[in-house]
Specification:
Strand content: 15-25%
EC number: 3.1.21.10
Cofactor: Mg(2+)
Number of strands: 5
Strand order of the largest sheet: 3-2-1-4-5
Shape: globular
Helix content: 40-55%
CATH architecture: 2-Layer Sandwich
Largest sheet: 5 strands, mixed
Order of helices and strands: EEEHEHEHHHH
Family: Belongs to the RuvC family.
Structural class: alpha/beta
CATH class: Alpha Beta
InterPro entries: RNaseH-like_sf, RNaseH_sf, X-over_junc_endoDNase_Mg_BS, X-over_junc_endoDNase_RuvC
Enzyme class: hydrolase
Radius of gyration: 18 Å
Amino acid sequence: MRVLGVDPGLTRCGLGVVDDAPGRPLTVTAAGVLCAPADADIGHRLLLIECGIERWLDEYRPGAVAVERVSSRYNVRTVMGTAQASAVAILCAARRGLPVAWHTSSEVKVAVTGSAGAGKAQVGAMVTRLLQLDVPPEPADTADALALAICHIWRAQALNRLQQAHATACPAPALARLRKGTIR
């Protein structure tokens, strides 16, 4: 599985591509930041982000995209900009029929560090360790994007195991009868 993690922002949009193969450690394929001038109008900034994400999707061909879910704990202006950049990432993925998953920053922090209160330095350190990198990814937006991809990979694996366990425990014919009310 190859996942593109997107840490949305209007001036810096972190991107990270992580690969997962059975029996092998996670590997980073690419990591970086799309930058847009803070003094440019919003339309131009969103266009730069779109072009950059499109290039990454064309070049790295992920099977899924993980985007940070916007949190309302920030001020409204920050939330709006983040939401707009998120929408661009979602649109780019939708054009290709790619599944998109949203993860809150707390979910990502718990997945990679074990603590929802982890700081940027802790996330960067754990991403460095998990991906067996020589140095922490810089800037923090890049580490956050890689952490999003890692979180998605691990959550997808857990969800698949749960679905398989459910299918084994409750075969489809029994589930259909249960839904019809013939099994009590």
